Amino acid sequence: VDGQTVDELKQLKAYLREQKRQYKELKELVRKHNKKTNDLINEHAAKQKQLQSDFLRRRSALQKRSASDQDLMALEQERCEKLSELKEQQQRQLLTLRQEQFYSEKYLKREHVKL
């Protein structure tokens, strides 16, 4: 086993330091992306909860006025449509966010490989 020269050891140490820095940088980026994703999911859950509470409030008001079953069914259908639209919009937002995050992580990894 040949002994390594001081220069080789310094190069190895610098390489390992750079590798560790890159790992931390990527880990931090992934952490930020996860936080953004969770924030968006929580925002979506809050919007869905608000939609549900609005529906319950409106249904209660209709029931107090002794509204017909047809009115209640129309309200339920409206709720289902709005909930469906909201979910589709939220899925598109989440997909867009995850795609942006994927490409930024991919870009960072490419930059690290160049070094």
Report on the structure:
This is Phospholipase C-beta C-terminal domain-containing protein. InterPro entries: PLC-beta_C, PLC-beta_C_sf. This protein has one domain (6-114). The chain has two helices and no strands. It has helices at 6-64, 69-114. It is rod-shaped, with a radius of gyration of 27 Å. It starts with 5 loop residues before the first helix and ends with a helix. The mean pLDDT is 93.
Which outline best applies?
A: rod-shaped
Total strands: the figure is 0
The biggest beta sheet reads: none
**Rg computed from alpha carbons, rounded to a whole number of angstroms:** 27 Å
Q: What is the H/E string? A: HH
Give the uncertain stretches in residue-range form: none
| Assembly form of the protein | single chain
Estimated helix fraction: over 70%
Give the distance, in angstroms, between the N- and C-terminal Cα atoms: 29 Å
Mean pLDDT: 93
Structural class: mainly alpha
The domain count comes to: 1
Q: Provide the β-strand percentage band.
A: under 5%
The DSSP helix count reads 2
InterPro entries: PLC-beta_C, PLC-beta_C_sf
Organism: Cirrhinus mrigala (Mrigala)
Coiled coil: 6-43, 73-100
Protein name: Phospholipase C-beta C-terminal domain-containing protein
